Amino acid sequence: MKTMKALIANEIDSIAVEEVSIASPKVGELRIKMKATGICHSDLSVINGVLPLPLPCVLGHEGAGIVEELGEGVTQFEIGDHVVLSFVPSCGECNDCHHQRPQFCTSGSTSYGKMIDGTSRVFRGDEEINVMQFLGCMAEYAVVPAISAVRINKDIPLDKAALVGCAVMTGVGAAINTAKITPGSTVAVFGCGGIGLSIIQGARLAGADKIIAIDLADNKLDMAKSFGATETINGGSENAVEKIHALTGGGCDFAFEAVGIPALMEQTYEAVRRGGTAVVVGVGKMTENMNLNALGLSLSGKTLKGSFYGDANPAVDFPKLLSLYQNGKLNLDDMVSTTYSIDEAPKAFEDMVNNVNARGVIVYD
Ligand SMILES: NC(=O)c1ccc[n+]([C@@H]2O[C@H](COP(=O)([O-])OP(=O)(O)OC[C@H]3O[C@@H](n4cnc5c(N)ncnc54)[C@H](O)[C@@H]3O)[C@@H](O)[C@H]2O)c1
Ligand SMILES: [Zn+2]
Ligand SMILES: [Zn+2]
After folding, report:
1. DSSP assignment, residue 159?
2. Would you say 36 and 165 are in contact if contact means Cβ atoms under 8 Å apart?
3. Three-state SS for 57?
4. pTM of the entire predicted model
5. Alpha-carbon distance 79 to 146, whole Å?
6. Which residues sit opposite 141 in a β-bridge?
7. For FRET with 168, which of 83, 181, 281, 350 sits at 20 to 30 Å CA-CA?
8. Hey, which of 37, 39, 41, 239 would you mutate to test ligand 1's pocket, going by the most ligand atoms within 8 Å of its Cβ?
9. CA gap 324, 64 in Å, rounded
């Protein structure tokens, strides 16, 4: 057992940085010395109950660190390897993995909040504490399934690499893997947080001609421009759908929702032209529904898609994204706008609510 500081969601709207114990890795697991963890809106959604995870739970699912201990049977990693953590373990053996859908791997589907074997490695006294997405990496250490880790080059700064574990993979992947944006396309992105800014970067990489960013916060719209947006709309003061139609001559080719609000999902669908593609990336509440006109979907010939984890194949896509970063084609440096210590994690969440950052990142010694 090792003691460590971790950010724990104890009950709805109640978080604390606490000292807990973490056990050694078991069969097929790794212990990671965490170096960086990004703050994602999905962590906030666990705190406020939008994502109903079993509590108490160590938050964190966007992280990078260094392999420190190998569980029995682990041969694909060595101590000292640098890794980015995937928030979905990919076993390579289930039906979805066999069908090239590792983002839907079912290896952990019956043990949410625990390790794949259904037990926990984190303890507060005798009490087992849950972890988010088999990781719980908003902590000084994390024990994770080896199939949740992807080895990366040691010359990549780990605070930048961490973002590939969620925001950048989710956003760039939504643009390139899910929507398959083509060169010269027109694109609209609702919401300019870590996910939306990454969608904008993905659209830029795919050669989109117009990239229209929509947010309520003007500082987010300024950030959107710096990552590749060609026009911006403040959705609080302007009618976004009308303006997108005016800017694109009748609707954009691709539109993305990266907030998690049903009314915006509907606007995303309305913003695209006939035959265009609307992609929902934001995660709304289980109790809410989006509302589409029953006549319109067939007659408009539009495609409405969900995108989970950017349709990622982490083992292949993480290194590709990091190579784009190293070659100056993907900007991760400006995505990390503020770093925090683990003790400052609650402040990092306040800053997320107040739209201070592109991404806030917790870093560890
Ligand atoms: N599909 C997936 O696999 C996946 C993965 C990670 C996160 N997510 C989800 O993506 C969403 C965004 O996450 P994030 O980390 O980027 O969040 P974030 O909090 O960093 O950013 C959200 C942005 O939306 C803006 N916004 C809020 N209300 C708006 C409105 N009415 N109109 C326009 N903009 C508005 C905010 O100003 C902010 O810039 C969340 O719902 C999160 O749970 C989905
Ligand atoms: Zn996330
Ligand atoms: Zn699988």
Report:
1. H
2. no
3. strand
4. 0.98
5. 12
6. 33
7. 350
8. 41
9. 18
Whether 190 and 263 have beta carbons less than 8 Å apart is answered as no
* Ligand 1 mutation pick, 132, 259, 361, max ligand atoms within 8 A of CB: 259
Ligand 1, atom 13, lies closest to the CA of 41
Look up residue 37 and give its two tokens.
Answer: 């963890």
Whose CA is closest to atom 20 on ligand 1? 193
192: which residues sit within 8 A by CB, 6+ positions away?
Answer: 200, 213, 214, 215, 217, 220, 221, 223, 224, 229, 258
Residues 42-74: tens digit of each pLDDT: 999 999 999 999 999 999 999 999 999 999 999
pLDDT the model gives residue 53: 94
Extract the tokens encoding 86: 């995937």
From the CA of 231, how far away is ligand 3's center (Å)?
Answer: 40
For the chain, domains (ranges, CATH) are 2-165+334-363 (3.90.180.10), 171-308 (3.40.50.720)
Atom of ligand 1 nearest to the CA of 42: 43
Task: Look at residues 183, 197, 261 and name the one whose alpha carbon lies nearest to residue 229.
Answer: 197
Q: Over the stretch 93-152, which tens digit does the pLDDT of each residue have?
A: 999 999 999 999 999 888 889 999 999 999 999 999 999 999 999 999 999 999 999 999
Residue whose structure tokens are 């944006």 = 181
The ligand placed nearest to the CA atom of residue 213 is: 1
